[in-house]
């Protein structure tokens, strides 16, 4: 049985800067915390939660940039069925598990314009060779080719439904 975890906003420290020498305590330190915010969450509430979690009055928690939220696209059964068909054609027996992409995407601008937007993650990755967002981020050529095949099947399926 597949168990689904509840989706929630996440935050993770991605950059730490402090100090000026290897033999001196830093007078100041700066940390960047990357937040992946769900459409239903308020960024100011997330900022308050982070400040409350740190519970240190000398730490300033401020926003960098401007939040431009958009609502989630509805999970359409016709789109999900097409994803299931293309997945089974390329990877028989592989389950399809809908997730919400919380990374940067052009989809939020399209959704704000009223265009439902879906991302399809159809490129397998080697779980023992994690390089996402690293200096040498890469995928294997054979995995890319297989992903293109699955995506082409999906596009043909969805385009056929549009007629």
Q: Overall pLDDT, averaged?
A: 85
CATH class of the largest domain: Mainly Alpha
Written as H for each helix and E for each strand, in order along the chain, the element string is EEHHHH
Q: What is the CATH topology of the largest domain?
A: DNA polymerase, domain 1
The total beta strand count reads 2
Summarize this, please?
With 163 residues, the chain is α+β, with helices and mostly antiparallel strands. It has helices spanning 43-54, 77-90, 107-112, 141-162; strands at residues 10-18, 29-36.
Mind explaining what this structure looks like?
The protein has two domains: 1-69, no CATH class; 77-162, DNA polymerase, domain 1. The chain has four helices and two strands; from the N terminus they run ββαααα. It has helices at 43-54, 77-90, 107-112, 141-162, and strands at residues 10-18, 29-36. Strands 1-2 form a two-stranded antiparallel sheet. The mean pLDDT is 85.
For this entry, give a set of tags.
alpha+beta; DNA polymerase, domain 1; two-stranded antiparallel ribbon; 4 helices; 2 strands; 33% helix; 10% strand
Topology:
Layout: E1 10-18, E2 29-36, H1 43-54, H2 77-90, H3 107-112, H4 141-162
């Amino acid at each position: 049985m597949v168990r689904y975890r509840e989706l929630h906003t996440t935050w993770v420290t991605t950059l730490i800067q402090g100090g000026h020498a290897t033999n001196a305590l830093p007078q100041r330190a700066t940390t960047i915390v990357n937040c992946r915010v769900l459409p239903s969450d308020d960024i100011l509430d997330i900022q308050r939660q982070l400040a409350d979690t740190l519970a240190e009055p000398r730490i300033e928690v401020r926003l960098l940039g401007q939040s431009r939220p958009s609502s989630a696209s509805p999970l359409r059964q016709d789109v999900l069925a097409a994803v299931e068909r293309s997945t089974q054609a390329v990877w028989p027996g592989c389950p399809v598990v809908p997730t919400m992409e919380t990374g940067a995407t052009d989809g939020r601008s399209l959704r704000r314009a009223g265009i439902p937007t879906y991302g399809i993650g159809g490129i397998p990755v080697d779980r023992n060779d994690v390089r996402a967002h690293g200096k040498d981020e890469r995928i294997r050529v054979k995995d890319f080719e297989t992903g293109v095949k699955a995506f082409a099947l999906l596009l043909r399926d969805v385009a056929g439904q549009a007629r």
